[in-house]
């Protein structure tokens, strides 16, 4: 065993299935599971985790079964690595491998108390803050609610089973990067349930809670290179291992339906109101991530750390954070300048190799809360927002699919087909106008504001004619 490995040296046989995590990927391993693991090391808690994925990743779960749920998390700084073996997971489930009923049965089990979700922004099937009843997966689930495939359909069917069996309700805890994530989750679950049976919706609303939470830990997707790095660090491969940064934060609204794990022992901050923390993180960290991802990728930068070695990108990332910070209302105990300094350091972490093209994915789901929400505040306060404008223009230019040096840029997005159709448009002003008409991203009232449209048109014109470096240098 390598000397730096922190083993899961607690008695795992005591663990019962009390938490179900839906959407078990690299982030959940490095974040939710680590906080939970830390609690298990510090208490006699019997809260074990059942983890599941709903779409791809069946084989990932089977690999995890082979190591009895144990996996390694490598927490990295530039030249420092801590290895932790996480023992929180006691069971894996996948609907294709185990059958949907196995999942529903687990969720309906009276021992189960909490469901944690990392199903990404898309997984909530939202449109303008409500259940998207035109989403084909939702349409299909509503036709056969007893055999659901979406996370929302699965949650509602399992809650129906719980209420029929007169079991207690659940705490459903969203851990996705959405503002008011708990409220959005509650809205979509209740609206879906209401379509099936209004009494069920009432039962859910009385018996379940949907706390909001802010989650933070930079966790790049694993690559062949990082798997090799893990094998070297451990002395043997861990096909389930992940790397992440050393920083981690989880702020959870203290609103649990019944029992709650002693997560405070694992470092979770339990608060009454998560919203300011969500805004802080979404606008400063995620907003700047997206800004660097689009502009950096156009400028030929492969990773966020590489962006941070470029003087212009680095200083404008910091300026964007100052710009965005003006839209926040934080409690007195939060030191925003110190938060920005810490982010500058976290983004510079050379060990992470966090790809700009990875963060660039799903822009249509990410831009509203990351860059457009602060813009609304700036417009109201009549403040300039040159860097957020360049971030949006960066996304628009990125959507054309070519870096400034002519390399292909991947467009992974729910609206990729539509965007590629628009990208065939050569007239720049028309291209911007057509992108601005995508209501999933740009709210009509925002687009109706001429200051907004003219600023975006101007930023796109500068960026597309002068390039990233000059556009950034001229932005201030
Ligand atoms: C990133 C996030 O991929 C992205 O969009 O901005 O995954 C980010 O790394 C995490 O939110 C950090 O907590």
Structure, explained:
The chain is α/β, with parallel strands linked by helices and 476 residues long. The protein has two domains: 5-271, NAD(P)-binding Rossmann-like Domain (Rossmann fold, 3-Layer(aba) Sandwich), CATH 3.40.50; 275-474, N-(1-d-carboxylethyl)-l-norvaline Dehydrogenase, domain 2 (Orthogonal Bundle). Helices cover 49% and strands 13% of the residues. It has helices at 26-30, 32-42, 58-66, 95-98, 100-108, 136-143, 151-164, 181-196, 198-207, 224-234, 275-298, 304-308, 311-325, 336-347, 356-360, 363-381, 386-398, 416-423, 428-436, 444-447, 450-466, 468-474, and strands at residues 5-6, 16-22, 47-52, 71-77, 80-86, 89-93, 114-117, 126-127, 130-131, 171-174, 213-216, 242-245, 249-253, 269-271. A five-stranded parallel β-sheet has the order 6-3-2-7-10. The protein has a four-stranded mixed β-sheet with strand order 1-5-4-12, sandwiched between helices. It has a three-stranded mixed β-sheet with strand order 11-13-14, covered by helices on one side. Strand 8 (126-127) and strand 9 (130-131) form a beta hairpin. It is globular and about 60 Å long. The mean pLDDT is 97. The structure holds D-mannonic acid. D-mannonic acid is lined by residues 177, 216-218, 285-286, 289, 358-359, 366. D-mannonic acid (CS2) binds next to helix 11 and helix 15.
């Amino acid at each position: 065993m390598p000397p730096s490995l922190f083993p899961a040296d607690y008695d795992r046989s005591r663990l019962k299935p009390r938490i179900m995590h839906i959407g078990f990927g690299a982030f959940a391993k490095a974040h939710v599971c680590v906080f939970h693991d830390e609690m298990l090391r510090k208490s006699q808690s019997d809260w074990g985790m059942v983890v599941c994925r709903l779409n791809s990743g069946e084989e990932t779960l089977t690999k995890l079964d082979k190591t009895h749920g144990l996996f390694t998390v490598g927490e990295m700084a530039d030249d420092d690595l801590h290895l932790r073996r996480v023992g929180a997971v006691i069971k894996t489930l996948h609907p294709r491998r185990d059958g949907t009923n196995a999942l529903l049965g687990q969720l309906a089990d009276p021992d189960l108390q909490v469901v944690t979700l990392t199903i990404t922004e898309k997984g909530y099937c939202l449109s303008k803050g409500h259940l998207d009843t035109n989403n084909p997966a939702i349409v299909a689930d509503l036709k056969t609610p007893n055999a659901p495939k979406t996370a929302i359909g699965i949650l509602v069917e399992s809650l129906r089973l719980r209420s029929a069996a007169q079991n207690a309700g659940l705490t459903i805890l969203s851990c996705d990067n959405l503002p008011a994530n708990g409220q959005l989750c509650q809205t979509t679950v209740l609206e879906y349930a209401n379509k099936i049976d209004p009494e069920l919706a009432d039962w859910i609303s009385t018996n379940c809670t949907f706390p909001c939470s802010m989650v933070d830990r930079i966790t790049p997707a694993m690559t062949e290179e990082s798997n090799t790095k893990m094998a070297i660090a451990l002395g043997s491969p861990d096909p389930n291992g992940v790397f992440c940064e050393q920083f981690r934060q989880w702020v959870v609204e203290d609103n649990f339906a019944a029992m709650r794990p002693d997560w405070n022992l694992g470092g979770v901050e339990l608060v009454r109101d998560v919203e300011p923390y969500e805004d802080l993180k979404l606008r400063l960290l995620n907003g700047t991530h997206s800004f660097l991802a689009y502009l950096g990728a156009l400028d030929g930068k492969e990773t966020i750390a590489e962006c941070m070695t470029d003087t212009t990108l680095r200083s404008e990332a910091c300026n964007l954070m100052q710009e965005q910070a003006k839209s926040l209302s934080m409690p007195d105990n939060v030191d925003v300048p110190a938060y920005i300094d810490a982010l500058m350091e976290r983004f510079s972490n050379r060990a992470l190799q966090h790809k700009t093209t990875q963060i660039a994915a799903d822009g249509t789901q990410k831009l509203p809360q990351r860059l457009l929400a602060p813009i609304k505040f700036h417009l109201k306060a009549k403040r300039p927002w040159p860097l957020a404008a360049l971030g949006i223009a960066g996304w628009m230019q990125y959507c054309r699919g070519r870096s400034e040096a002519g390399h292909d840029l991947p467009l992974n997005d729910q609206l990729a087909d539509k965007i590629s159709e628009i990208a065939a448009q050569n007239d720049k002003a028309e291209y911007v106008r057509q992108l601005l008409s995508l209501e999933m991203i740009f709210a009509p009232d925002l687009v109706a504001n001429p200051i907004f449209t003219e600023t975006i048109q101007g930023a796109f014109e500068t960026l597309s004619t002068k390039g990233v470096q000059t556009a950034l240098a001229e932005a201030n």
